[in-house]
Amino acid sequence: MAFDRWLFDEVHRAGMAVGLKNGLDLVAELIDWVDFQVNEECIEQGTCEALAPFVEADEPVWSIEYAGDPEVVCADAAELGLATVIKDLDLGPGGTACPVS
Fold first, then answer.
1. 3-state secondary structure at position 52
2. In what side-by-side order are the strands of the sheet with 61-65?
3. Whether the predicted pLDDT of 70 surpasses 80
């Protein structure tokens, strides 16, 4: 953690933002050093509650889901406050972007 925090401080000093990808077990320890979160399949896996500190701090959370009914996934994403896109696993062009409320 000490190295991560040092590195994130250096990145911020250089005028850049720092993001955390997945790493839900690190959210509580790094929320003060990270500017946004990118997460894969928290809705599918039922782990989105770990992202609440980002949502509560008005830090962006981008969620990527690879399965599910878009209507249901987007409703869940809206309730959780996540900007979400549903993509194919090949990550090619396209996908379904959920409306952000």
1. helix
2. 19-21, 36-40, 61-65, 83-86, 96-97
3. yes
